[in-house]
Amino acid sequence: MHARLLLVAFALTCTALACAQPAAAQDMPARKPGLWEIKTTSEGHGMPPTTSEHCIDAETDKLMNSMGGNMRQEMCPKRDVQKVGSTIVVDSVCKAMGMTITSHSVTSGDFNSAYTVKITSKTEGGPPGLAGNTSITLDAKWMGACKADQKPGDMMSAGRKINIRDMQNMPGMPGAPAQKK
Question: By Cβ atoms counted within 10 A, which residue in 27, 100, 101, 143 is the most buried?
Answer without folding.
Answer: 101
